[in-house]
Amino acid sequence: MLTMSTLPFYDGRGMARTARSARKPRRPYHHGNLRRALLDEALATIRDEGVDALTLREIGARLGVSRTALYRHFADKRALLAAVATEGFRTLRQRLVTAWEEGGRGPEAFESMGIAYVGFAVENPSHYRVMFGGFVEATAYTPELATEGAAAFQALVDALAALQRNAIVRGDDLLLMARFVWSVVHGVAMLGIDGQLPERGAVEELMRYAVTRLGTGISPDRPAGST
Amino acid sequence: MLTMSTLPFYDGRGMARTARSARKPRRPYHHGNLRRALLDEALATIRDEGVDALTLREIGARLGVSRTALYRHFADKRALLAAVATEGFRTLRQRLVTAWEEGGRGPEAFESMGIAYVGFAVENPSHYRVMFGGFVEATAYTPELATEGAAAFQALVDALAALQRNAIVRGDDLLLMARFVWSVVHGVAMLGIDGQLPERGAVEELMRYAVTRLGTGISPDRPAGST
DNA sequence: CTTCGTATGTTGCCAGTGTCAACATCAGGC
DNA sequence: GCCTGATGTTGACACTGGCAACATACGAAG
Fold first, then answer.
1. Chain A, 190-219: which have a CB under 8 Å from a chain B CB?
2. How far is CA A71 from the centre of its chain?
3. Are B84 and B43 in contact (CB under 8 A)?
4. Which are the contacts of A77, defined by CB distance < 8 A and separation ≥ 6?
5. Cβ partners under 8 Å of residue B203, min gap 6
6. From the Cβ of A62, is strand D under 7 Å away?
7. Distance from residue B5 (CA) to nucleotide D24 (C1'), in Å?
């Protein structure tokens, strides 16, 4: 239906975007789907102006709704940010799974996952920061966030497990190895986001290099005399 | 003139720390070394209560000084945070250099650097977040911060260069390889800080594993037939 | 020693923020 | 047709970062 869904990296946020601009003059007292609209507006604000620029009053005003209407759908600002983070993990997981499956579920697909991971972070730096920047402190407070975060990580674990079954990667403890891989992509992503890789194309270059070296690092030991 | 300037790596924090508790009743109008005291108080607050809890009024009150006295020493709150970050990079660099030199400047020393890096981050999570969490946006605004950050990274580059000269690591582009190593430790540190490795000892375990796999990843290609 | 400019610290004040309590409006089941 | 709960509004409060005007004290110049 939506032609933009054919763009590989588009996450479908445009749907809500249209609803955002459709502010009818008749202004029904009840918004209909305010929670979703609030989330989308927060997402857009964070993407466009950063996390600090997110203010409950303005997001309300932008939706033509009062400043405290938000409290009927989120406990407080942190809860809103937690929802934003949850949404981010969902999108991230989706991109990872897509990269894995469309890449053929092999070593190249695994590399694609790495590229996709860093790509998501670099394309949505503020959003990524909400997910990892310590804005939502204890994940225990918001179980849904913990669940979605774990699911995104699981996509990585599953792919790695498949490679392990085919002896493409070492037989080490799966969780440990997955966490190592995660550290690498997360590290590259964070450095890129924070402007520590200022040269043009530096993030991509580093990512390519990291993927190669990572591949060497987690490949099985070559038994003496093997081809 | 100042005797503490003779200590190579000492940043004089101890002095101010005593001045912090020594709040004489006579309350001289001029504080003497308020800038240093403000920085230390900010550091302490960030460490104890997190970045969000840092408020200019409270830090002033805690020093027995008015809320706006700070503006005679820092342009605004971001400038204070930038100074905190600068201090962090200085300390981090010191720990890295110490680990490298006391470890014998060999492969083991390099591993010690990794441990020291993650150790610093995990022991001072909030401080580390100020350094990398996007609180001080463009490093161009505060050249001193950029300098100190580059110096910390340079410690890593220098160590890696030494290993490269001895053919202990590959002959790849030095900057690229250093950035890769940085990504790994930074990634482990960030995941640890964000509570993504909840089990007790998980950070250390991951760090040990990462160091091992990283070593394999950046070791030179074995020419066919070598021992 | 006095004088005085300047660095340093203070007080009053402002707009803006998150959040709560009290009130208003509506939708849907009896 | 009425009432109950869900949803949205208004008023208020404490708190924040920051500015302008004022107060104080150090140190150099006479």
1. 190-191, 193-197, 205-206, 209-210, 213-214, 216-218
2. 26
3. yes
4. A54, A56
5. B118, B122, B188, B191, B192, B197
6. no
7. 31
The alpha-carbon gap from B5 to the nearest alpha carbon of chain A, in Å, equals 31
Which are the contacts of A130, defined by CB distance < 8 A and separation ≥ 6? A46, A51, A81, A84, A85, A88, A136
Alpha carbon dihedral B182, B186, B187, B192, in 10-degree steps, equals 150
Burial class (CB in 10 A: 0-12, 13-18, 19+), A227: exposed
In tens, the pLDDT along B121-173 reads: 999 999 999 999 888 876 666 889 999 999 999 999 999 999 999 999 999 99
Residue ranges with strand state E in A6-117 = none
The answer to whether residues A163 and A169 touch, using CB atoms and an 8 Å cutoff, is yes
Q: For chain B, first and last CA: distance in Å?
A: 59
Tell me the C-alpha distance between A194 and A133, whole Å: 11
Protein CA B72 to sugar C1' C4 (Å): 22
Give Cα B101 to chain centroid, integer Å.
Answer: 18
Residue of chain B with shortest Cα separation from A191: B183
Taking only the tens place, the pLDDT of each residue in B174-187 is 999 999 999 999 99
Segment B200-226, tens digit of pLDDT: 999 999 999 999 999 999 999 877 655
Flag if B197 and A188 touch (Cβ within 8 Å). no
DSSP one-letter code for A201: T
Tell me the average pLDDT across A127-138.
87
The pair of structure tokens assigned to A159 is 């792919």
- Residues A91, A71 contacting (CB under 8 angstroms): no
* pTM of the predicted model as reported, rounded to 2 decimal places: 0.86
Distance from CA of A16 to the nearest CA of B (A): 28
The pLDDT value recorded for residue B32 is: 73
A102 vs B: CB within 8 A: no
Residue B221 CB contacts under 8 Å (≥ 6 apart), including other chains = B170
Find which nucleotide's C1' atom is closest to A73's CA.
D7
Whole-number Å distance between alpha carbons of A215 and A208: 11
In sequence order, the 6+-apart residues with CB closer than 8 A to the CB of A36 are: A16, A19
Q: Which residue has the tokens 């890295």?
A: B96
